[in-house]
TrEMBL record:
Pfam families with a match to the protein in the record: ABC_tran, oligo_HPY
Organism per entry: Microbispora maris
Alphabetical list of NCBIfam families matching this protein: oligo_HPY
Residue spans crossing the bilayer: none
Keyword field contains Ubl conjugation: no
Protein name: ABC transporter ATP-binding protein
PANTHER family for the chain: ABC-TYPE DIPEPTIDE/OLIGOPEPTIDE TRANSPORT SYSTEM, ATPASE COMPONENT (PTHR43230), ABC-TYPE DIPEPTIDE_OLIGOPEPTIDE TRANSPORT SYSTEM, ATPASE COMPONENT (PTHR43230:SF3)
Residues in coiled coil: none
GO molecular function term, any single one: ATP binding
Entry keywords, A to Z: ATP-binding, Nucleotide-binding, Transport
Lineage per the UniProt record: Bacteria, Bacillati, Actinomycetota, Actinomycetes, Streptosporangiales
Residues spanning the signal sequence: none
SUPFAM superfamilies: P-loop containing nucleoside triphosphate hydrolases
Amino acid sequence: MITGTGITKIFKQRGGVLGAREVPALRGVDFAIAKGGAVSFIGESGSGKTTLGRIIAGLETHDAGEIVIDGVPMSSLSHRARQPYFRRVQLIHQDPYSALNPTRTIHQTLEAPLRLRAKQTGRLRSWVDGRAEELLAMVGIDPGYVLPRYPHQLSGGMRQRVVIARALTMDPEVLVADEAVSMIDVSLRLGILALLKDLRERLGVGVLFITHDIATARYIGDDGELYVLYRGQVVERGATEKIIADPVHPYTQSLLSAIPVLHGLERPGAERVVPREMQREGLPDGGCLFARRCPFSTERCESEMPVLGRDGGPGAETEQEYACFHPERRSVIPVGVGE
Ligand SMILES: Nc1ncnc2c1ncn2[C@@H]1O[C@H](COP(=O)(O)OP(=O)(O)OP(=O)(O)O)[C@@H](O)[C@H]1O
């Protein structure tokens, strides 16, 4: 189990004439990823998804908050002592082209981490080659074909499978898949998503899926949890299917309204939420982060920041949380014709 409480990250960007400026990438994010669970973080570009994934994988520091892995708060450990914990979280890079060293064969790519793993777990070195073959077979590629080859000799889809196999060398509990299919050919995407789903079922490995695309979040974690991030804040959280069917936050509703309708098969939902153009000047200070774009915002939204709250109170049957003063369910998703 991996949990985060109040995860906050502020980047200092060197500005032009105005000097350095602080960019809050994450504003007190709470999350929990259970073993074998599927959690998706969704949000538009700049919402803080990648930063959060990197923090969870131990590749980025945070300014406030706590990450707890298997009951151990990471802040209580030295940098060195944290490493075995962060080994349990492996990041799958979105770009399979730059993620693999072009000068190494796939055999060499897998051999190095497997040797380390053999040492850590007291196995013989002879275990390494067999394990490399096993992992490649597990991700659906022929070891005999792939092992002697260099990355440039493989398709994007195959490379992404090798990247996943490499992540599995460390026996992770959680795979962080950051836009894992965005850079590979559309025709190969479903195969990679199906593989991640399969690994969840077969190995019980948890998947943290980071995406701007609600359809992929739905595919990978239809039984999981969805977190909707907007400008570093979780604005809605709950069971993926529930949020997709019944979004409450206007930002989530606007994301779902943007899903294209399949002509002849679907018709648009009864309502559509279209965000207003963002005005650069006068960004809300202290108010709801979405207020200036929200078609339903009121004076209160401009001056007070809503916090994530539970629907129906503690113990409510469905646990859906949202940060909005004017929650209203709107049926925005396309519905099948004849339903
Ligand atoms: N190394 C960095 N230095 C300064 N600012 C950064 C850095 N990394 C991210 N940011 C800023 O932090 C905010 C969140 O970025 P992040 O990449 O986490 O968002 P994202 O939701 O993953 O976006 P995308 O989908 O475009 O990758 C953005 O405003 C970004 O400009």
